[in-house]
Amino acid sequence: MGLLKLEVLFSNTARGMKPSPIRELLPYIKRPGMISFAGGNPDPMIFPIDEFAECSDILAQNGKEVLQYGPTDGYAPLKDFISRWMAPRMGRAVEPSELLITTGSQQGMDLLCAALINPGDYIIVEDPTYPGAIHTMRNRGAEFLTVPCDKDGLLVDLLPKMIESARNSGHALKFIYTIVNFQNPAGSTLSTERRKKLLEIAAFYDIIVFEDDPYGHLRYDGTDEPTLFSMDTDGRVIYACSFSKILAPGARVAWITGHKDIIRKMVLVKQGVDMCTSVVAQALVSRYCEKGYLDSFLPKIIAHYKKKRDGMAEAFKKYLPGYVEYDIPKGGFFFWLKIPGVDTEKLFHNAIDKGVAFVHGRSFYACGGGENCLRTCFTFAQEDDLLEGSRRLRAAIDGTRP
Amino acid sequence: MGLLKLEVLFSNTARGMKPSPIRELLPYIKRPGMISFAGGNPDPMIFPIDEFAECSDILAQNGKEVLQYGPTDGYAPLKDFISRWMAPRMGRAVEPSELLITTGSQQGMDLLCAALINPGDYIIVEDPTYPGAIHTMRNRGAEFLTVPCDKDGLLVDLLPKMIESARNSGHALKFIYTIVNFQNPAGSTLSTERRKKLLEIAAFYDIIVFEDDPYGHLRYDGTDEPTLFSMDTDGRVIYACSFSKILAPGARVAWITGHKDIIRKMVLVKQGVDMCTSVVAQALVSRYCEKGYLDSFLPKIIAHYKKKRDGMAEAFKKYLPGYVEYDIPKGGFFFWLKIPGVDTEKLFHNAIDKGVAFVHGRSFYACGGGENCLRTCFTFAQEDDLLEGSRRLRAAIDGTRP
């Protein structure tokens, strides 16, 4: 008898598991007076609170259905809406069998990995990429190969050699993960030419492409590139999008679209994972969309975030020294900064002391790198704080440089 | 170039994955005129629709928090409520670090398996047990050892030999899974004496006990047994409960309580799985509880389901032939029937033709068995349908017997 030998009991994955780097920043961010450029949070000041609350009429009107267990693949009216609403971007209205509602895009990623990844299988990811994706994929046993990005997105020309060398080494390559629009964290958007090339390469090597597009609707300059999904003729592109950035992350409602056989496997996994996404949350989102609020809210949020993007660009111009390198993103949530000679993990702790938070670069590299980089989010902080946070960041840089 | 060789791409788990047996019954159940004794669904006629809808005031009042990402371990006011409300059952108010809000109890199970199970590890489950648990655990790579149950729950005396023999064979045994109250499907409740013995055995062999208790609040006769959690002095009991059966499964809000180191690992997994349970759903449930509706609804739902339990008992007495064996459950959702000589999978198809659905026995056995058994749920069907469904079931039995 006695205490549990817990370390022995934990699974291999759980034993080696590291926290999601951004989730673990929450205690820092919540310190009084802290200005957060860290998490990719939408601005709560622009949440469509009244419109969303108004949609709770569906709870009274349709309570018998909404309070009951729902189908694992999602609340049918919401699936209908998404299929219609996304048709211009997807190139067609996808079938119900090709569409799965998920508890946030994070779950779509997790289910896709459960369906495709055996421990030790490889995923090609961008360098840098979204840390939440690395966390989820690693927890499902994935290993990584990384492709660098420039301002036009991932360097597709490097893929063939990488794929061939991985296959020659006997590695099972399961898919290429790419955030095509306003990449998290780099801010870049994959050019049309590279999209074409990526699909050609994927077809030649018969490999799946996972197109993650949480920011695609949030473009502040220029015109939209076609989705990989719409350009694909083989059924090899899995496309994920979410209401988190264009409505409210607290709903935890997102969706994933792809080949019906893959979606079907994901549905089977989801049956054991959470049975179905909150029907209550899905119904509220569905009603919100049907009332036309999503369409009327989008231009408002785009104007709002464009102003904030400009605010951070101005603040950086004013406060950041000339040797800090960055591009101004054309959409999305983030600036990606390179500060030659500065270790941004060290900088992070100095910045916290000065009262500003960001995410340091190492978090975004699946196989190491990013020591001199950092990501700042411009959507969450309020206008004055964009200036003051940048001033603090400068002070932290000055205190960190060798 | 060409089509994807999908079967090659799927993970080993996905390739062998079977659908959750109950979820897959939905198409049958939805046939017009079908009376369903199949799924474990609450009665939508008694959902507290007006009270729940009234709680949507929290969306307007607290929208900035409720629409934003929430902490992975759960919405703090809901955690506070659960800790206070459950204290009499748990023996104490559990700490926030010991409590995790999950997207349904199904997710609690999945996260626990992710934290503890390596492929090939063993879990001891009851024979019969909840098919959703088998599905989830199998998807995480678990193998099973099964302990039979009688009317006082699992036969704890069989455990020591089973544990020793498993360990002698070099199997890693990770935990014992038990539905202690109004077991799904058997309807039995573990006696206090056996609870004591189970904990002694678990302590002696240093093994974790996962106490799943979705039906514990729904007792129609007799008095409550103490929870295993409240009797445990070692921190080895993980306890799961849910709002699905006592409020509304469509919310997908449940909770799991246990040793803080295990909960912490589960939080890390959840970061990558869905980031957090729908804050919108949690906030609605939280407000509902705080307004006292949970406490005022419970006696109502208990009286309602007791009447339905009695209704099914009467109907079975009237229609089922003497050789059909069953006990009348003291709580929960289910009757468990044994029909000697009748293959209940065959019976199922005949019953569907007659217009009544149930779940056949094989679904509840992790390692085979249950050919002559079936589960009927009495909470979902309406009063007249309890009679008519039983009449149809009798007709199906008559048409199936050799």
Provide a descriptive summary of the structure in words.
Two copies of one chain form a homodimer. By secondary structure, chain A is α/β, with parallel strands linked by helices. The first copy, chain A, has two domains: 10-48 and 295-400, Alpha-Beta Complex (Aspartate Aminotransferase, domain 1); 51-291, Type I PLP-dependent aspartate aminotransferase-like (Major domain) (Aspartate Aminotransferase, domain 2, 3-Layer(aba) Sandwich). Chain A has helices at residues 6-9, 12-16, 26-29, 49-54, 57-61, 63-66, 76-90, 105-116, 131-139, 159-168, 192-204, 228-231, 260-273, 279-290, 293-319, 344-354, 383-400, and strands at residues 35-36, 99-102, 122-127, 143-150, 153-154, 173-179, 208-212, 237-242, 254-257, 334-338, 356-357, 359-360, 373-377. In chain A, β7 (208-212), α12 (228-231) and β8 form a beta-alpha-beta unit. The radius of gyration of chain A is 21 Å and the shape is globular. The interface between A and B is large, with 95 and 96 residues.
